[in-house]
Design brief:
Distance between the termini: 38 Å
Helix content: 55-70%
Number of strands: 0
Order of helices and strands: HHHHHH
Number of helices: 6
Largest sheet: none
Amino acid sequence: MDVAFADRFFALMTLAALAGTIGIATLSLGGRFSPALARWNGEVQGVFGDWTYWLIFLIALVSMLGSLYYSEIVGYPPCSLCWYQRIVMFPLVVIMGIAAAKRDISIRIYVLPLMVIGALLAIYQYIISYVPDAEILGCSLDVSCTERYIWEFGFVDFPFMSFVGFSLMIALMLWAGPGEPTGSEE
């Protein structure tokens, strides 16, 4: 796969995920104030609700495969903050795959903290790429945490992609609700 094509592909997927995150947040929060949005939120949940955990699994899987593509095939070395985000993301693939297959609704309490930690690490890395003096967590001397290997549309880089991925997973997990079954029927 051509690296420029992969950069554009993942950047476009990131923008689609950002739109999805904003849409879910709008439906969820707007539904509390507008009966029409609440009704529409219910209809959309009816369509996607049973597949929410599978969507989260897919987001985690694509994120993992994308990060491995860039580090192992393209050769971009991950910085220490990237490694921390991977430490959070990679287990989510397995955990969410099992949770979706088993329709385990109790998983929410375990995965939400991981997703929030990943999102916070990603937004921190995105901020220090703009304001390097804001770095308080030491980064490796070998690979800078502010290095931009991708820069699409003037704002999409690896930390932004990671933040949006984690944000969409958080939004979907909260949108699914604590007691609503997800996954395929047994």
